[in-house]
UniProtKB/TrEMBL annotation:
This is Oxidoreductase. Keywords: Iron, Metal-binding, Oxidoreductase. Belongs to the iron/ascorbate-dependent oxidoreductase family. It comes from uncultured Synechococcales cyanobacterium. Pathway: Antibiotic biosynthesis. Gene3D superfamilies: B-lactam Antibiotic, Isopenicillin N Synthase, Chain (2.60.120.330).
């Protein structure tokens, strides 16, 4: 399975991008309007954070889902072993840890602005009957949303003591509308095709990977696919190195109705309980 690489400034980019999301659920944007130096500097700051003891001063709030999540806190839905990762949840209202500059906010804002463009492309490419089923335009769903999330992820070097069934991120689908992922610092991301086979997702160091989330799949009557993906354990020298990534998960406002009887809030709460990040009441 070859993921379509779409040149952002190509006049046909909107149609090519939407077609890839429709057929595969993933697309790779080439030369997006995201400054590469900003990405590199943001990674460097968070690498220092994860390598320090200060991270434990910012443990997450279970109700607000903001802050630092220690190693092996999360496990994929329907999977028995926790993922081999630690991460930090950054919302617009989250306080940055000491030592983290406003570069993270600059990157956050760049990604949200780009996401608004991409959602417009997605909506315009919907068949008329599917577009009429939307409870509101996609751009309206995210207007003023405080729910979009930049997740800073650290996959530590493997220790050879992990359970055989434990991997960096088990197979899952994202819960949000779309996810924007600047190039990670190492390989490992894979996507599953219709036959159940796994394929490595390759992009250049300045490319942006975009995928469909379950909320968009639900809102569009499955026209856009939410595709299973995972981060596998590396071998050789790569196993001795950390991997960092920082996806932006674009979320609607909580009260937005995705489809009859299901709001963005209720859908998200159900998923958080399924993956162990929210206690079952």
């Amino acid at each position: 399975m070859d993921l379509l690489k779409v040149e952002y400034r190509d006049p046909d980019a909107p149609l090519k991008f939407a077609k890839s999301l429709h057929q595969i659920g993933f697309a790779v944007l080439v030369d997006p309007p995201i400054p590469p130096q900003l990405v590199a500097e943001t990674y460097a700051e968070w690498q220092r954070f994860f390598n320090s003891e200060q991270k434990y001063d910012y443990r997450f709030d279970p109700q607000r889902q903001s802050g630092y999540f220690p190693f092996q806190t999360e496990q994929a839905k329907d999977y028995s072993c926790p993922d081999l990762k630690e991460f930090f949840h950054l919302y617009r209202w989250t306080e940055l840890p000491a030592g983290i500059s406003d570069r993270s906010w600059q990157l956050f804002n760049c990604l949200v602005e780009l996401a608004e463009v991409l959602l417009h492309w997605v909506e315009q490419a919907l068949p008329p009957d599917r577009r009429s089923q939307l409870t509101m335009p996609l751009s309206t769903m995210i207007a003023g949303s405080q729910e979009s999330l930049l997740r800073l992820i650290h996959y530590p070097p493997l220790q050879k003591t992990e359970l055989a069934s434990s991997i960096r991120a088990a197979a899952h689908e994202d819960v949000n509308l779309i996810t924007l992922l600047p190039a990670a610092t190492a390989v490992g991301l894979e996507v599953q095709d219709n036959q159940g086979d796994w394929h490595q997702v390759l992009g250049g160091p300045e490319d942006l990977i975009v995928n469909v989330g379950d909320m968009l799949q639900l809102a569009t009557g499955r026209y856009y696919r939410s595709t299973a993906h995972r981060v596998v354990n590396p071998s050789g020298d790569w196993a001795k190195q950390s991997r960092f990534s920082m996806p932006l998960f674009l979320h609607p406002r909580p009260e937005v109705i995705l489809t009859e009887g299901i709001t963005a809030h209720s859908y998200l709460q159900d998923r958080l309980r399924q993956i162990g990040l929210l206690e079952v009441s």
